[in-house]
Structures are given as structure tokens and as C-alpha cells.
Amino acid sequence: MFGLSFGKLLLLSVLILAVWYGFKYAARVQVIRQSVRDEVSRRRAASPRGASSAKPIEDLVKCSACGAYVSATSTTNCGKAACPWGR
Predict the structure, then answer these.
(1) Beta-carbon contacts of residue 78 (< 8 Å; ≥ 6 apart)
(2) Secondary structure element (H or E) that encloses residue 69, with its range
(3) For residue 86, what pLDDT is reported?
(4) How far apart are CA 16 and CA 7, in angstroms?
(5) Is the dihedral of CA 27, 31, 33, 34 positive or negative?
(6) If the chain, 87 residues long, is cut into consecutive pieces of 10 residues, what is the mean pLDDT of each piece?
(7) Who's near 84: CB < 8 A, 6+ residues apart?
(8) Calpha distance 67→74 (Å, rounded)
(9) DSSP per residue, 15-76
């Protein structure tokens, strides 16, 4: 009634292998997630507090000769004769 046939043994071995590799995969994913968390926390600790990687905001002014907007702190001549900067 409860005999062990080749098909049953094959199915049992496939199930055991599926569970085994499932646990190995889950452990690997957990290790990768932990390493990513460690890397993020290391980078956060290495960067100074309050420091931003974005550039500071600058005001722009319009050139009266050509109409282009240029930085107010580092204006350069646009090449027009009536350009108010870089004379």
C-alpha cells in the first residue's frame, strides 16, 4: 500500500533539492541586502553632515545686448558690441 516506487523517490529528491536551493537562495539574498545596507551606512557616515552634492543656486541676469541669461557672479562678454560685460 505504501510502497516506494521510482517515481515517488524521484519526486521526493526533486522536492528536497528545491527546498535546499530555495534556502541557499534566500540566504544569499540576505547577505547581499546586508552588504548593501552596510555600504549605504558607510557612505552616509563618510559624508559630512549637512553637505549636499548639489551646486549652490546662482542668480541669473539678462544681457541687454543679446538677451541671454548668464550667471551674475561670472558674467562674460557675449561677443556683441553693446554687451555690458567683459569690456
Answers:
(1) 63, 65, 66, 68, 70, 85
(2) strand 69-71
(3) 66
(4) 14
(5) positive
(6) 84 97 97 95 80 75 81 76 73
(7) 63, 64, 65
(8) 16
(9) HHHHHHHHHHHHHHHHHHHHHHHHHHHHHHHHSPTT--SSPPP--EEE-TTT--EEESSS--
Distance CA 50, CA 40 (A): 16
Joined grid coordinates for residue 38: 552596510
Residues 6+ apart with CB under 8 A from 65: 78, 80, 81, 82, 83, 84
Lookup: cell for 27: 540566504
